[in-house]
Structures are given as C-alpha cells and as structure tokens.
Amino acid sequence: MSRTRIPWTQLAVEALPAVAVAAGVVVFWQFAVNHWQVPAYLLPSPIQVATALWEKREALLHAFWVTARASLAGLAAAAVVGTLLAIVFSQSRIIRMALYPYVVFLQTVPIVAVAPLLITWSGYGQRTVILVSAIIALFPILSNVTAGLLALDPNHRDLFRLYRAGRWPTLLRLRLPTAMGHLALGLRISCGLAVIGAIVGEFFVGRGSDFPGLGAVMDRWLAMGKTDALIAAVLLSSLLGLLMFAAVNLLTNRLLHRYVQGTGD
Amino acid sequence: MRFPGGRDVLSGVDLDVPAGGAAALVGPSGCGKTTLLRCIAGLLAPTTGTITPRPEAVPAGTMAYVFQEPALLPWLDALHNVMLPLDLVGRGAPEEQRGMAEHWLAEVGFGRDDLAKYPGELSGGMKMRVSLARALVTEPAILLLDEPFAALDDLLRTKLTELLLALHARHPRTMVLVTHNIAEAIFVGDEVCVFDHGRIGSRVAIDLPAPRLAQARGGAAFGRLYGAVSDALAEAAR
Questions:
Q1: Do B146 and B132 reside in the same domain of the chain?
Q2: Do A261 and B120 lie within an 8 Å CB cutoff?
C-alpha cells in the first residue's frame, strides 16, 4: 500500500485562519502597547520581544536544547515505566484494585508541591528535572496502555485461547501489539506534559543557581524584570511543546501505523 | 448450558457428528448455535453434560475455529497470520511453518503475490480465505465454523462454500457449521440440525450426492431438502 501523500496545499488553506488570528493579535498587541504607552516591564511590544529573542538567542537556544533533552528523557522514562507498570496492571484485577488508586492519587498531587521534595531526594540537577517531567507524563501513558492491554478483540482472545497460548505468548503476540495504538495516544497526550514537567522542575532546580534550562532562565529573567526575554522564553517553551507533539505524531504514525489500523475485519 | 442470571441457553442437546462428517446448525438468532460451537471448542464450559472429545484433553491445534469476522491480526501480513497458530502450538521450525502456511494459502486460492499484504490491504473475500487457511494450517481433526461467510456477498459466499466443500473432499475432517443460510447448510452438512429455543428441534438428513455444486440449487432434491429445513425453521421461530 502506498503511503498517503501529505496534502500541503490543503494544510496551508486549513492553517490560514489560525495564522490570520495570530497576525491580528500581534498587530493589535503592537498597536495597544504604542497607543496606551504600556511600560515595557509590564508588557513589551512584539518588536521588543523579537529583539530580545535575537539578542539572547545563544542563551535561549541553549536553554531550549537543555529543556528539550530533559523533556525527551522524561517522556521516554514515562513511556518505559508506564508500559511496564501497565503490563503488571494487566495481569490481574487484584493488582489493579490494589495499586491503581495510588497511581490516581499520585496524579492528583500537585507537582509544584512535590518538586521541592524531589530536590531533597534527588538533588539540584538534570536528574530531578527529568524525574518531575516523567512523573507528570506518566499517568496518561499508564492509563492508556493499561486500557489497551485489556481491550482485546473477543475473537483474537478466543483464537489465542483455542491454541492454548500461555500468559507470555498472549502478552507478547496479542496484548502488547493491541496496546500499541493506545501507547501512541498516551505519548501524544504526555509529550506536552513532559515539557511542562521539565520547565516546572527547572523552576525549582534553577532557583539561585546557573541551571541553563528554559524554566531556570525564565525564573531568572522574571526576578530581573526582563519581561521581553521572559516572553521570548515562554514562546520557545510553546514551540518546544508543539515540536514534541509533531515529532511524536510523526514517529507513532510511521512506526505504529499497522497497530492503529483496527482489527482488519 | 446456563448463563449467569439463570437463563438456560442450551438444554438437552445431543449432537453426534461422525468422524469426517459434517453437521450444519441452523436456527433463529439467539437460539444457542454459537454457544454450542463455543462449548465444543472449549471456549465455554457447559454447566452440565459432556463433550467428546473433551476440548482440554486433545492437543492444541486439533480443533480450529473460523469466526464470523476474519479476525486477522492487523499488524501481521497474510503469511504470518496463517503461521500464527503453528507458532502458538509450537509446531515446526520457522521455515517449516512458512512452508505449511504457504501450502494452505495456496489451497484456499490465495495468490502468492499477496502473501506480504496486511489485512488492511485485502478485500473481504481474501481476508476470509486467509482466515480459512489459518484454521486449516494445524491440520485440525475438527473444524468449527461460526457463520464464516455471513458478511460476504452472495456470489463470493457460494464460491467460498464450494471451496470449503472441495477442501473437505480432499482433506476430510469433522466439521460443524453454524449458519443462517439454508442453502449453505444443505451444501455443507450431512445433517442439518434445526435449533429451537436451546435444543435441537428437528434434524434433516442430507442425501445429496457429492460433489455438491451451486448448480444443484435448481434440482428437485435440493428443493425438497430446502423446503424441509425451511418448514422446520418456521416451526422453531413460532
């Protein structure tokens, strides 16, 4: 089967309204700052933000790279741990009943409350940032993969039972492949969360230190009143989230498209 | 056979299919045909009564089941879908499994050029051929078919029924077919059992000579049998 070609023209047409809104916001923003003479420390103009972006490009790009690495590592750790935990959860209803409430509890604890504790245990470093990122990104992957491992097509389940496939062959040949589509969905939800987690982690880890991630430089520039650079960093954070989403989407579409096709009936 | 809630799905069913013979089960929806098939396969345990051979007592791969949907694994190509049962029952080295899968795919008329195609790239008829080959690849002694061609158009259905009969003639095995199609039941079965509210209400012996082909539909013998099964079904639906 030939791979579907990307309809660039159609995509451009579909993106046009959103781009027009963004352009309108920027134009209004510039006009509002000039017209009402808003102080730069409160709201710098788009041109001032663009200038800060250019002038601090080295620091920003480095911070972008540091945060991107931490987010990717956090997402990867969440994917591995989430999938392994989901496999454990899928093995028995008792295990799910015993452990799932704690996973939900972990999810409801605000990460900003946990981050200082994690620093106490794991120290002021990249490791803690990755840990915060992974904790935030874990739940969607865990819940989706668990659901996928349990959502077998009844005919497929009967087929494996008929040939008396044991627990491991069923897991490896049926449950895990069935759950791949759910893993892709979990990764898509979690990639944005991984970026948020990394930035939150950097806020805490970078406080009072020279940690170079986006969260840390934002915290520093906030303290120095450099709102133009702060907004530039916020824009780069959003860009990082979008790039992560696009990369995960592309990767899962390429690698997992067979698993996301349905049952083939 | 009693389902949770106390509803008797099957009661007093006595079905004896001689080795190498074929029985067709027909009846209104919900009368217990599929439940009986699942009990024979060992996918459901009967509340009372016995099934011989006991499903758990025969080696894995002795029984095969063809579902109403092809139920192919979408992440495996046609060849590997057919190799799967051999792998699950641990029969043969990978090369032997490949050879057996290719043999049975050829037997069901699946083209060599399509072996590497995935289920999403196959038509309904091709998927059902793969499903049939997957059931036959372990060379089961008992073949259970649960409305296997129900989702196909009439022409393809007739073609695949003839294929099933040809395969049965070449490689005789015990068959139990569940179907809503009277003609299909008459073509395949040596006996047609008409289900009536969880029991076998009547049995019609099929004395059509082999080979049974679609052309026989116009014959007087076929018409007589069709009428008998049809009357029994009408009685069961009352």
A1: no
A2: yes
Residue B136 resides in a domain: yes
CA closest to A159 among chain B residues: B65
pLDDT in tens, A162-196: 999 999 999 999 999 999 999 999 999 999 999 99
In a domain, A10, yes or no: no
Is residue A184 one of the residues assigned to a domain?
yes
Best of A156, A157, A162 to mutate (most B CBs within 10 Å, chain B): A162
- The pLDDT confidence band at residue B105, using thresholds 50, 70 and 90, is very high
Has residue A121 been placed in a domain?
yes
Least reliable range by pLDDT among A229-238, B52-61, B111-120: B52-61
Q: What are the E-state strand segments in B73-116?
A: none
The C-alpha atoms of residue B8 and residue B67 are separated, in whole angstroms, by: 23
Give yes or no: residues B77 and B46 share one domain: no
Q: Is B60 on the interface with A (CB under 8 A)?
A: yes
CB-CB neighbors (< 8 A) of A180 in chain B = 75
Inspect the interface and report whether the beta carbons of A259 and B84 lie closer than 8 Å. Answer: no
Residues with Cβ within 8 Å of A239's Cβ and at least 6 positions away in sequence, in order, are: A64
A109 has pLDDT over 50: yes
Q: What is the span of the domain harbouring residue B127?
A: 73-140
ipTM of the shown complex = 0.91
CB contact B90 to A (< 8 Å): no
